[in-house]
Design goal:
Layout lengths: L1 E4 L5 E4 L2 H5 L8 H18 L23 H14 L3 H4 L2 H28 L5
Antiparallel strand pairs: 1-2
Amino acid sequence: VEPIPEATGSAISVPHRSIARSGAMARRSSSALLASALCLALLLWATAPSFVAPPPTEAPRGGAVETRLEPAAQAAVLGALLAATPEAAHAANQGYAVLQLGWAVFIIGLGPAVLFWIYFNKPEIL
């Protein structure tokens, strides 16, 4: 044990460096334990049963069955499809959201900028 002098004049006992390098201390194995746990999880994930397609269903005996909708039903389906899609007039308004995000970034960034200006130019008001 070598004494190391402090600024106050007293000495602190610190173990010699050769003891710290020897096998007297326990080896840190948290990273090895973490790596082995990750390898085990990867192995379990890779060997897990994955999606298997179901067996093909048999076709109807009469061949392919053709389904036809009535004109009123066709119009209803077409109307629902067109109502679900966005209109061209609404697509142009997405720029407003970008404008709002830009102002939000500007206003949120303005707070730290003002604080830095005050800190470096008028620190007495802080």
